[in-house]
Amino acid sequence: MEPIRLLYISIEGNTRSFADKLQNYANGMHDQNSKYPQVELKEISDQSDFENETQPYFISVPTYLTGGNGIDSGVTELMTNSFGEYLAYNDNAKYCWGVIGSGNRNFNEQYCLTARRYAEAFDAPFIADFELRGTGRDVERIYQILIAETQKHEN
C-alpha cells in the first residue's frame, strides 16, 4: 500500500508536532500490520521552492488570521500565504484529496477558518480538525479518516 502523503505548513510548531505524531502512529501501525499505510510528510515553508506535485496528498493548515471576524467583517490570511501559493502552483491543487484544519477553539467561528477557506479555494473537502497540537485520540481519528478518504479515491 502506498504511503499517505501529507503536506503541511507549521508556523509555531503545533502542526509539525501533530504531523510527526501522526507519522509515528501510522508507521507503528504499519509495522504491526502492513495493510496499514505509512504517512509521508512534506513541510512547506516560505523558503520552499515550488515543485510540481504528481501524486495525491492531503494538507494540514493552521489558522492565522488578522482583521475582521472572518465571517461577516472580512479577514486577511496571515502567515500561510506561501502554502496557498504552493498549492495553487501549476496543477498542484488537483492532487489535494482533503484538508485538515487546526486552531484554537477559543476563537469560536474563526476555529479552522483558514482550512475551510483552503478547502473552498482548492475544491477539496474539509475532512478533519484538531486543536493546537492535537491529542492521541485526534491522531488515531484523523489517521482513520485519511485511510477512509484514500480508499474512496482508490475505489
In short:
This is NrdI protein. Helices cover 35% and strands 22% of the residues.
Q: Can you characterise this structure?
A:
The chain is α/β, with parallel strands linked by helices and 155 residues long. The protein is built from 4 helices and 7 strands, in the order E-H-E-E-E-E-H-E-H-E-H. It has one domain: Rossmann fold, CATH 3.40.50. Helix 3 links the parallel strand 6 and strand 7 (126-131). The longest helix has 19 residues, at 14-32. The model has no long low-confidence stretch (mean pLDDT 89).
Ordered list of secondary-structure elements with their pairings:
Blueprint lengths: L3 E5 L5 H19 L6 E5 L13 E6 L2 E2 L9 E2 L3 H8 L7 E8 L9 H9 L4 E6 L4 H19 L1
Parallel strand pairs: 1-2, 1-3, 3-6, 6-7
Antiparallel strand pairs: 4-5
Helix pairs in contact: 1-4
GO molecular function: FMN binding
Protein name: NrdI protein
Pfam families: Flavodoxin_NdrI
Based on helices, strands and strand pairing, what is the structural class? alpha/beta
Strand content: 15-25%
What's the arrangement of strands in the largest beta sheet? 2-1-3-6-7
Give the helix level as a range of percent.
25-40%
- Secondary structure tally, helices: 4
| Annotated CATH architecture | 3-Layer(aba) Sandwich
Radius of gyration: 15 Å
Low-confidence stretches: none
Number of strands: 7
Ends distance: 14 Å
Biggest β-sheet, characterized? 5 strands, parallel
Can you tell me the CATH topology?
A: Rossmann fold
Task: Please provide the ordered H/E string of secondary-structure elements.
Answer: EHEEEEHEHEH
Number of domain modules:
1
Shape summary: globular
The CATH top-level class label: Alpha Beta
Mean pLDDT: 89
Q: What would you give as the CATH superfamily? A: Flavodoxin domain
